[in-house]
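hiii, so i know i said id send this last week but things got crazy w the move. better late than never?? heres the sequnce for the chain we talked about at the cafe, plus the structure i predicted for it. fair warning i was half asleep when i ran it
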Amino acid sequence: MTPARPGCLSGDLEGAGVLITGAANGIGAATASLFAERGATVYPTDVDVERGLAAAATYGAAERFRVLDVRDEDAWESVAADMAAEGTPLTVLVNSAGAAIKAPIAETTVGSFRRMLDLNLVGTFLGVRTAARHMNKGGAVVNISSLRGVLATAELGAYGASKFGVRALTRVAAIELAERGIRVNDVCPGSIDTEITATPDFAADDMDSYVRSIPMQRRGTPTEVAEVIVFLAEPRSSYITGVDLLVDGGTGAGARTPKKNAETSS
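okay and structure toks below
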């Protein structure tokens, strides 16, 4: 059997060079840990150095942690060059870095809107472009969109616009890179138990009522999303490209009709 050349996936993730953005916490941290568990050589990145290093230390990748502002073109090229120089070419890219703001459109500043686009969409574009320039056949890109990039939600105009854009970018990249054997997909998490909804912007939300509206009646975990991301990077998903995979407890499938309370209907 001819061995896979460096930077190509064969039967598993052993030794694959995996670059993950937003790896200091949440979905990014869970994904980095799971890739490391599966034998990949993980390069976790984030702008939060202290938390990023602490997270990387838990799965033995602290020495490969890199500071990466996903909006910085030169920083992307630098990390890709580091990986190649260290004998671990970029094989898998997970674009997990992102943030959310919640405000009505009438109250959203141009600066806030542009910040969401720069971080969530332009940052993902730069990652995809880096992969297009540095990946060999067999590589995989997994972008993180959102259920809010599938179902429009009031007060999430900037966030939703950026995540809808990630889905469009994913499909274009999938078409362009398919002939080179590079797959590009995105994952759309629903309500996941991370810090993103712990900011003051979301303080007025009735989370208990929202959770009751989810068909599975609970929020997801970062690890549940990470499992899907790793699947989309593995050779067992080798004929899947250009898809949006919802990880949302069934919310995107539709809604149930609320039932009357037995006591009030009598």
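btw Strands lie at 17-20, 41-46, 66-67, 90-95, 140-144, 183-189, 244-247. thought thatd interest u
miss u guys!!
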